[in-house]
Amino acid sequence: SMLPEDTKFCFIDLGCGFSTLLFFLARKRPDAQFYGVEISPFAFAFGKLRASFCRYANVKIEMKSLWAVDLHDFDYVYAFLAPGPMPELWDKCRREMKEESRLFVNSFPVPAPHQKAIQVDDKRKTVLYIHEIGFKSHS
Question: pTM of the entire structure?
Answer without folding.
Answer: 0.91
